[in-house]
Design brief:
The structure holds two protein chains of two kinds.
Chain A: H1 17-24, H2 30-33, E1 37-41, H3 45-57, E2 60-64, E3 82-83, H4 95-105, H5 112-131, E4 157-158, H6 164-181, E5 185-188, E6 191-199, E7 202-210, E8 216-220, E9 223-226, H7 247-254, E10 259-260, E11 265-271, E12 294-298, H8 307-310, E13 318-319, H9 321-325, H10 335-347, E14 359-362, H11 364-370, H12 372-390, E15 399-408, E16 411-412, E17 425-427, H13 445-465, H14 478-497, E18 501-502, H15 503-517, H16 524-544, E19 545-546, H17 556-580, H18 604-607, E20 609-614, E21 622-627
Parallel strand pairs in A: 1-2, 1-9, 2-5, 9-17, 18-19
Antiparallel strand pairs in A: 3-4, 6-7, 7-8, 10-16, 10-20, 11-15, 12-13, 12-14, 14-15, 20-21
Helix pairs in contact in A: 3-6, 3-13, 4-5, 5-13, 11-12, 15-16, 15-17, 16-17
Chain B: H1 2-12, E1 25-33, E2 42-51, H2 57-70, E3 93-94, E4 97-98, E5 120-124, E6 133-135, E7 138-139, H3 142-149, H4 171-181, H5 188-192, H6 199-211, H7 219-232, H8 243-247, H9 255-269
Parallel strand pairs in B: 1-5
Antiparallel strand pairs in B: 1-2, 3-4, 3-5, 6-7
Helix pairs in contact in B: 3-7, 4-6, 6-7, 6-9, 7-9
Classes of the chains: A alpha/beta, B alpha+beta.
The complex binds flavin-adenine dinucleotide (FAD).
């Protein structure tokens, strides 16, 4: 069954695979690179770094983003930091340790060779960024500083105050700008990719919509790279930016790219709770807060309890449930465990705040112990942000937090070269599935995006291009006609339904179904129910959605409708995937598969595979399995008791 | 008082979220509507009712837009993305001030508890020759990108960089460079300036790279090229009123403009470029 999927992992010992591979892939000689055109869709960390590097190598690049500037990609919002096994702290870090932590953190559902390579090139990323002028935090000796993050026992996280993503993205944006000014990259802002053009089974171009004029445009190239980010907005509410979408990846999937592990989503435990129906997105409060904050709810249900009232709840009526259940890790259990437990206490009716969907994160003890000044110096900006959003002062009353969708480990299936199942179509950054298995460790997404863009794809794409004729497929090819027509038909259909429910209403309903049945905790029965509900929602959407305006102008209502139509289809595969995987692993908790103590139970004998879903067009995707083989690590069950 | 009220209400079994209802507001919005770049545009008034103080400013507009769509009207178009104050996309002049009445935040971080029942709120796009209006509150800021493309980077190719710790950088300098680097490129500085000058924006990048050892090689050409591009885009002159820094949501300091001026004069004195 797995014969369709060839991961192309090179032979040989783990530590030598990448070096060997770089030597064995075909090269395009420097003078010939200018004869090849590459399309890069997305200019976040992954896309900007790839486009800049391609330009430097001599390829002709066209890059696309839906925002008005590459600097606004959602990578800009990453706060905490980026991992690299520099071992500057002399605390025993190494390529192997970073590899091991990442594989284990991913609950043994990722590919060894890819993860090892990620760890290997991590150190080059830091060198590259410093050379670009990225102002990482430094110690008093002038050397780079590190902090520690969840899932690791060494200090390997490089950071720029609480704005690491911003600084890294602006570095990559600078490199991209340099290639734009050299004429090697042509940048298309406010342009959304709506289809991949397939010629003889290979990706040879894309169809885009100019978001200002509405113009549908054709772009042809020798290869296409998708760097379009994650799909967390399936859930409507998430920590992602409003425009984050699955459209590029989904349309590629419809053209034949397999979608891997779609049900693996990361729910971050510490976000500001929903405050009402109007809520449009959720704000992350850094994981680092759990170093000093204590999580609790009242022992007896007290619906509607406010943060101020919490001060009157005596110690013996409080349940510090993480400290109680996990005495050795306490409040610092991994993200998935912390999230699930918050959900459980709220399901028991012990949640707090107006909605009952919140728990306290209390700094009173830390402030008593260390003083307000020290706490301010550590978390001042987060406390301010919290105050700004909620109106509560966390120096005086406990914070209220609740888990929120944050990151998607699933994505387009790629081989070791980061090529999808469509020849000539690559996927990098959060939009592929490659390195994080069933759970991503903090500070590893930035690392992966930049590893893919700066240090992996510039090599591996040559292997494909070297076998391609210089002559490009013309945009008058019938494949472009067909793809353009598909896009136009889709948009026309959306505009002509003229129903009476808004796009946001559908999106919120979809989000609620997914959150309730395919969120922090899943059951076979619930998933089956959700599957039916999404099917109904899809039918209703195509009969009753209301989109105003026309296709040939800036039309944000149409943009949203288009994206939501893809989210609905993606949701169906997420549910199918979650249903197939009747084990618990990482962020995917199947209630049927738990230990007697109620912890996640992985079933390695049956589920050590990557699920790669193939589009069939008949409503149910087809499952292809890539078996995961572990030669360098021993599989263990995680325990944090 | 409110605690007691809440408790009383809890006992009667009414949901707690009902208790905050009495704080909700009715507001009158005066919003700039402009169909496209060629349209003249003008203000239109809208009533919004039952606005919760917990809503963000943009969520309040979302609610208005939902209503407009239901009435078959074109929703108010505005730029926004991350909604947590870092992407620099949102851009509204609220009651005459870029990003609204509160200091140190972007429009998306503004919450309705900063307003009161019965308020009239005027909402306009950034206004500057170099930021033409595209539609309603959406403006074209690609001029900012072109300034960065002119030289806002260190020319280093991927690969071959020396070890990151090879050149130590004093913490004070790294911190100062970081402060300048936190500019989000939103354009509030331009919108706040009576001359629509982009000096604060340009100075942030010039300062960051002028302070760091990695930026030294291109230090002179960078400042010349970026300033030349800024002028070409039609941004106005700086007359040191400080309005830019006062409205900057990220607190980019005016001292950066002083540094930009020094860098520029220094570069021009020894210029190898024929300009
Ligand atoms: C609040 C928050 C904090 C985080 N903090 C951290 C952290 O501390 N450390 C860490 O390692 N990770 C963190 N992450 C995760 C990390 O930021 C992301 O996974 C990563 O930045 C994704 O980068 P990317 O380049 O793959 O995608 P993105 O940065 O999302 O870029 C996507 C690009 O694709 C474009 N695009 C999308 N769809 C289309 C389309 N159809 N047509 C054209 N263009 C399109 C967009 O315009 C954009 O340019 C955080 C994430 C969030 C949400």
């Amino acid at each position: 069954m797995s014969s369709v999927l060839n991961s192309k992992v090179p032979e040989g010992p783990l530590a030598e695979k990448w070096e060997k591979h770089k030597f064995s892939v075909k090269l395009v000689n420097p003078a010939n690179k200018r004869k090849y055109d590459i399309i890069v869709v997305g200019t976040g960390l992954a896309g900007a770094s790839a486009a800049a590097s391609f330009g430097e190598l001599g390829y002709n690049v066209k890059a696309f983003a839906y925002q008005d500037s590459p600097r606004r990609a959602h990578s800009i919002a990453a706060q905490g930091g980026i991992n690299a096994s520099k071992n500057y702290q002399n605390d025993g870090d190494s390529t192997f340790r970073l590899f091991y932590d990442t594989i284990k953190g991913g609950d043994y559902r990722s590919r060894e060779a890819n993860v090892y390579r990620l760890a290997e090139v991590s150190t080059n990323i830091i060198d590259q960024c410093v050379a670009q002028g990225v102002p990482f935090a430094r110690d008093y000796g002038g050397l780079l500083d590190n902090r520690s993050f969840g899932g690791a026992q060494v200090s390997r996280t490089f950071y720029a105050r609480g704005q690491t993503g911003q600084q890294l993205l602006l570095g990559a944006y600078g490199a991209l700008n340099r290639q734009i000014s050299n004429g090697k990259v042509k940048m298309y802002n406010r342009t959304e990719m709506l289809d991949v053009v397939m010629v003889n089974g290979e990706a040879k171009g894309i169809i885009t919509r100019n978001l200002i004029t509405g113009e549908i445009e054709r772009h042809s190239a020798h290869a296409v790279v998708l760097a379009t980010g994650g799909y967390g907005n399936v859930f409507f509410l998430s920590t992602n930016a409003m425009g984050c979408n699955a459209t590029a990846a989904w349309r590629a999937h419809r053209r034949g790219a397999f979608f891997a592990n779609p049900c693996f989503t990361q729910i971050h435990p510490t976000c500001i709770p929903v405050s009402g129906e109007h809520q449009s997105k959720l704000t992350l409060m850094s994981e680092s807060l759990r170093n000093d904050g204590r999580v609790w709810v009242p022992k007896e249900a007290r619906k509607g309890l406010t943060a101020k009232e919490a001060l009157n709840i005596p110690e013996e009526e409080r349940d510090y449930y993480l400290e109680r259940k996990y005495p050795s890790f306490g409040n610092l259990v991994p993200r998935d465990v912390a999230s699930r437990n918050a959900k459980d206490v709220c399901d028991e009716g012990r949640g707090v705040g107006p909605s009952g969907l919140a728990v306290f994160l209390d700094f009173a003890d830390a402030i008593n112990r260390d003083g307000e000044d020290l706490i301010r110096s550590k978390y001042g900006n987060l406390f301010d942000m919290y105050m700004q959003i909620t109106g509560d002062n966390p120096y005086e009353v406990p914070m209220m937090i609740y888990p929120a969708v944050h990151y998607t480990m699933g994505g387009l299936w790629v081989d070791y070269n980061l090529q999808t199942t469509i020849p000539g179509l690559y996927a990098i950054g959060e939009c592929n599935f490659s390195d994080h298995g069933a759970n991503r460790l903090g500070a590893s997404a930035l690392m992966q995006g930049l590893a893919d863009g700066y240090f992996v794809i510039p090599y591996t794409i040559g292997d494909y291009l070297a076998s391609q004729p210089y002559e490009k497929v013309g945009t008058d090819h019938e494949a472009f006609d067909e793809a353009e027509k598909t896009v136009n038909d889709h948009l026309d259909k959306l505009l002509n339904i003229n129903g009476n429910k808004t796009v946001d209403e559908f999106h919120k309903e979809l989000g609620k179904i997914m959150w309730d049945y395919c969120g922090m905790s899943r059951t076979g029965e619930g998933l089956k129910k959700a599957s039916g509900m999404v099917k109904e929602l899809k039918e209703e959407f195509w009969k009753n959605v209301k989109v105003v305006g026309t296709a040939d102008e800036l039309n944000q209502s149409l943009e949203k409708a288009n994206r939501v139509s893809d989210f609905i289809e993606l949701a169906e595969v997420m549910i199918q995937d979650a249903l197939d995987r009747a084990e618990s692993c990482g962020g995917h908790f199947r209630e049927e598969s738990q230990t007697p103590e109620g912890e996640a139970l992985r079933i390695d004998d049956e589920y050590s595979y990557v699920s790669a879903w193939e589009f069939t067009g008949n409503g149910a995707a087809k499952l292809n399995k890539e078996d995961l083989v572990f030669e360098n690590v021993k599989l263990t069950q995680r325990s944090y008791k | 008082m409110l605690n007691l009220l809440n408790e009383a209400i809890n006992r009667t079994g009414i949901k707690a979220d009902k208790t905050i209802k009495n704080l909700n507001m009715n507001l009158t919005l005066k919003i700039w509507r402009q169909k496209n770049q060629n349209d003249k545009g003008g203000f239109e008034s809208y009533q919004v009712s039952d606005v919760s103080p917990d809503m963000s400013f943009l969520e309040m507009i979302d609610v208005l837009n939902e209503d407009l769509v239901k009435e078959d009207k074109d929703p108010v178009h505005f730029d926004h993305d991350c909604r947590e104050g870092i992407c620099g996309t949102c851009s509204m002049v609220i009651n005459g001030r870029p990003h609204g009445p509160k200091e140190g935040i972007t429009t998306c971080q503004l919450h309705m508890r900063s307003f009161s029942d019965g308020d009239h709120i005027t909402i306009e796009p950034w206004r500057a020759k170099a930021f033409p209006v595209i539609k309603d509150l959406v403006v074209d800021r690609t001029s900012f990108d072109r300034i960065q493309q002119a030289g806002g980077y260190v020319s280093v190719n991927t690969g071959g960089a020396p070890d990151a710790n090879e050149i130590p950088i004093p913490k004070r300098i790294a911190d100062e460079a970081f402060d300048a680097a936190t500019c989000i490129g939103c354009g509030a500085c331009v919108a706040a300036c009576k001359n629509a000058s982009a000096m604060l924006f340009v100075s942030a990048k010039v300062s960051q790279l002028a302070m760091l050892p990695q930026g030294q090689v291109e230090r002179k050409t960078r400042v010349e090229k970026m300033v030349a591009q800024m002028d070409e885009e039609g941004f106005g002159a700086c007359t040191n009123t400080g309005a830019c820094a006062a409205e900057c949501p990220k607190g980019i300091d005016l001292s950066n403009i002083a540094r930009l001026n020094r860098e520029y004069i220094g570069a021009k004195l020894k210029s190898e470029n024929v300009s």
